[in-house]
Write a structure and sequence with these properties.
By secondary structure, the chain is α/β, with parallel strands linked by helices. The chain contains twelve helices and twelve strands. It has three domains: 81 residues, Winged helix-like DNA-binding domain superfamily/Winged helix DNA-binding domain (Arc Repressor Mutant, subunit A), CATH 1.10.10.10; 85 residues, D-Maltodextrin-Binding Protein, domain 2, CATH 3.40.190.10; 110 residues, Periplasmic binding protein-like II (D-Maltodextrin-Binding Protein, domain 2), CATH 3.40.190. It has a five-stranded mixed beta sheet with strand order 4-3-5-12-6. Strands 9-8-10-7-11 form a five-stranded mixed beta sheet. The longest helix has 20 residues. The chain is globular, with a radius of gyration of 24 Å. The protein starts with 7 loop residues before the first helix and ends with a helix. 26% of the residues are buried. Keywords: DNA-binding, Transcription, Transcription regulation.
Length: 310
């Protein structure tokens, strides 16, 4: 095959088709008509002498040859887009740029207020578009549609760049009249009623099963190691909803310590160290390789690091 005769658009079509595995959705992603995408698939089949996508009981599935090509094509396109990024310096004070950031409620309430304050000083016309984990996907980040995601993540695609924003320890928060406060130990922790709170990664979560210890997370896995179990009365994905609910006298929530800082003025709140060893929570910042060398993005990453360090 003479590589000089390959239309670069065909590589773009192939990349999107293999990710979407649907001609209509691939066309929508690229902003072209469905017949144009179908024609692109036809040309790809002729070029590769391979069906590329075949219809199965699960819909359209890539052929073995297409699956082998996918990471190579993705890498070629990412390298090309990165190389073509503008190299002009970023003038923050004059910029009207909108940065789109996915942030968990924990990150949004602890990091972003300080970040916004610094932006008002250094770049008064720059705006933030803050999204929740349910608003975006890894694909959105990979494509550079989202400037960065700030959250804690269990698993990440290898293509992403990432940096630890900070590490945080856990603390137990409850009402001062909780009857177990005066005799605080592991027995008291297990006897009180708990609010479970967690949201990791992207996408809309499914309902929780109180018996699925692994999905419940670190706290309940640690309790299981100790042969203990806690009583969970409320499941939520929002740290600040959980903290508000924990003001009820019989409820307790175990949350990252920084998430409680906005509530220390509340006279009825009590913070207690967990009665068992828990790992620290790590807040990460991730972004697409397409944006890694973008001057404005570099500037924002450095500012976030500065704010986090303070």
């Amino acid at each position: 095959m003479n590589i000089s005769k390959i239309d670069l658009n065909l590589l773009i079509y192939l990349d999107v088709l293999l990710r979407e595995q649907n001609v209509t959705r691939a066309a929508q992603q690229l902003g072209i008509t469905q017949p144009a995408m179908s024609n692109g698939l036809k040309r790809l089949r002729e070029l590769l002498n391979d069906p590329v996508l075949v219809r199965t009981s699960d819909g359209m599935s890539p052929t073995e040859k297409a699956r082998k090509l996918q990471p190579t094509v993705r890498r070629i396109l990412l390298d090309l887009e990165e190389a073509l990024q503008p190299t002009d310096p970023f003038e923050a004070a004059k910029s009207n740029r909108v940065f789109r950031i996915m942030a968990s409620d924990y990150a949004a309430s602890t990091l972003l207020p300080k970040l916004l304050s610094r932006l008002q000083e250094l770049a008064p016309n720059v705006s933030l578009d803050v999204m929740t984990p349910s608003d975006v996907t890894f694909h959105d980040v990979e494509e550079g549609k989202i400037d960065m995601a700030i959250n804690r993540f269990d698993d990440l695609p290898l293509s992403f760049h990432q940096k630890v924003v900070w590490s945080d320890s856990f603390v137990c928060l409850t009402h001062k009249d909780n009857p177990f406060v005066g005799n605080w130990d592991l027995d008291a922790y297990c006897k009180t009623q708990h609010i479970w709170v967690s949201k990791t990664g992207f996408g809309v979560g499914l309902g929780m099963d109180p018996t699925d210890i692994q999905k419940l997370g670190w706290v309940d896995e640690k309790l299981e190691e100790l042969g203990r179990k806690r009583e969970i009365r409320v499941f939520t994905r929002n740290y600040h909803v959980a903290i508000q609910l924990a003001l009820a006298k019989q409820l307790m929530v175990t949350v990252p310590r920084r998430a409680t800082l906005n509530y220390l003025h509340e006279p009825d709140i009590v913070l207690l160290d967990p009665p068992m060893d828990l790992p620290e929570i790590q807040l990460d910042m991730i972004w697409s390789p397409l944006l890694h060398h973008d001057a404005s993005h570099i500037w924002l990453r450095r500012l976030i690091n500065e704010v986090a360090a303070s």
